[in-house]
Amino acid sequence: MKEFHKKPYLLYVGNAYPHKNLENLILAFRKIKQDNFDLQLVLVGGDDYFYKKLKKNNNDVIFTGFIKDEDLNVLYNNAALYVFPSLYEGFGLPPLEAMKRGVPVASSNATCLPEVLGDAAIYFNPLDVDDMAEKIKKALLDEGLRKNLIQKGFEQIKKYSWQKMARETLEVYLIPR
What we know:
The structure is a single chain. By secondary structure, the protein is an alpha/beta fold. The protein has a single domain, classed as Glycogen Phosphorylase B (Rossmann fold). The chain has 8 helices and 6 strands; from the N terminus they run βαβαβαβαβαβααα. The protein has a 6-stranded parallel beta sheet with strand order 3-2-1-4-5-6, sandwiched between helices. Helix 5 (113-117) links the parallel strand 5 and strand 6 (122-124). It is globular, with a radius of gyration of 17 Å. The model has no long low-confidence stretch (mean pLDDT 93).
């Protein structure tokens, strides 16, 4: 795996379907770079139609393609910030994966994400590239905020576990009728 942590980087893990809003993330990244941030944007996901389309004219973005789990752990662990710009989600697992690894999260304020991520993320309007760029910069520059997001992320992730889900599902089936 190529070493990405030579410079600080923003990380996104997932597919590149249009509702994931990666076009706006790339625009926000470029705005941030214009402010003399020495930063990279790393997008992790299988090389499908949408990623191939996104790669055109985006030579300043690192597209990794599919990454094995052990390499993905390295990418998460060395990221300066995990960014989740989605326009809508049913749940939103990747930001929780980032929180589990102690990575601060900047997320879209759309649909269920504030409910799932709670106060463990800094939120932006996914349709407003300027707002996205400003919130990402704030999360990169404000060390107190970063530490707070990391700590709250560790607390937030405790709300979600496979064991808890299995126990609660079992309880539904065992309720006498």
